[in-house]
Design a protein that fits this description.
This protein is an alpha+beta fold and 131 residues long. The protein has helices spanning 5-26, 35-40, 43-56, 71-88, 94-98, and strands at 101-104, 107-114, 119-125.
Length: 131
């Protein structure tokens, strides 16, 4: 028996489509399905199959509120919250950040630091520096 590349490729293709058909049958597909469905179907048959598979996809809101989440999800949420906070405040030039100058409301403010205590004290408005 002499197999060429086209025959071997077709055999692999049929094997894969048979496996796909069996999987879809396992999901509860109501119609007949086999390798020929994937290789020779009409548009109507493809539409029916795709609609069935789309209905089987998990819904977005299926996760319970009290369901535990992994560390990766928690990290992603923390990063998203930090980015949201950063993007909600107005942009401040770098040279102002090092001098603790920030835009608050309608004016620029200079944070006065208590060097001995290492904390932030009261701020003062930089007069005449409005937008």
């Amino acid at each position: 028996m002499n197999l060429n590349l086209e025959d071997a490729t077709f055999e692999i293709l049929v094997d894969q489509t048979v496996a796909m058909a069996m999987y879809v049958q396992g999901l509860g597909y109501p119609g007949e399905i086999g390798y020929q469905t994937f290789l020779y179907s009409s548009v109507k048959e493809w539409r029916k199959l795709l609609m069935f598979l789309i209905e089987k996809l998990p819904k977005e809101n299926t996760q319970a509120a009290d369901e535990p989440v992994g560390a990766g999800v928690m990290l992603g949420r923390m990063i998203a919250a930090e980015l949201e906070q950063c993007l909600s405040s107005p942009w401040t030039p770098g040279f102002c950040k090092k001098d603790s100058v920030a835009w608050k409301g309608q004016e620029w403010w200079l944070e006065v630091r208590d060097i001995m205590a290492g904390g932030v004290g009261n701020g003062c408005c930089l007069q005449g520096m409005r937008k």
